[in-house]
Amino acid sequence: MNQNPYSTALLAWYQANARDLPWRRSDASAWSILVSEIMLQQTPVARVLPAWEAWLQRWPAPADLAAEPPGEAVRMWNRLGYPRRALNLHASACAIVERHGGEVPSTYPELRALPGVGAYTAAAVASFAFGGRHAILDTNVRRVLARAHTGVQYPPKAPTRSETELAESLLPADAAVAARWGVAIMELGALVCTARSPACADCPIASQCAWRLAGKPAHDGPPRRAQTYAGTDRQVRGRLLAVLRDSEGPVPKDALDAVWNEPIQRERALDALVADGLVDPREDGTYALPG
DNA sequence: AAGACGTGGAG
DNA sequence: TCTCCAAGTCT
Hints:
This protein is mainly α. The protein has three domains: 29-128, Hypothetical protein, domain 2 (Endonuclease III, domain 1); 139-171 and 182-213, Endonuclease Iii, domain 2, CATH 1.10.1670.10; 233-288. The chain is built from 15 helices and two strands. It has a two-stranded antiparallel ribbon with strand order 1-2. It is globular. It starts with 6 loop residues before the first helix and ends with a strand.
């Protein structure tokens, strides 16, 4: 049926060990799945759970969100991080209403065309919401493939062509099986084949894992540089936006000036937020979330 | 095609 | 405390 050597073991493992996440339930709408995928970008499941519930309760369909100003999406996003995702979700909702009659599109190209929807998210929604046959290549899958197939501890910094080709070569032929296999290998990376301390004893494909068989050699190459945060523009942007989020209406410039004492950096961060459409400078000199 | 882009929990 | 990292995307 396919050349995937551990499909059966992986599927069985998933059957027995998958988390009961709300966006995986059979009654989850395509919209709710899209929302979950955007929220989960670079953000842990535990923090997404409550945000996802609140979001869907307020905006059960794309049209509900599209009917509100983008600033409300940013406010609702709260402290999930990367607030441009809220803007993208709002813009996606508008596009879905305008171009797709209010229904989340089902094909990869249509999904990929939505703002904030890249290769991973388009494949994930097409697969998880619509049962399409697409290779899922997120950080979990990339790590599993790096270990099981390539025999190294960590995947390359950025996704490569060969990783995509490997993932596609492993895809079960049947679309429904492929969709299930996609979540399964992702779940394996999230629960067992983790970044720091993989639980190889619990791994259904341990006997075929190239990295384990090689004695789990440590990562070879330059250290994976951690992202700095303290003192960066990102931190300033975060503080600036928090003031606007926590305020009912427009705020005077003084309130923004108070969050950071270095004026050059502060102005640069504010200008960038305005350029990104996350902050709306008003004629009276005050600032607000976009209306 | 490196680097920017938030936030908070775990070890 | 400090580093790492969590279902990426965009420029």
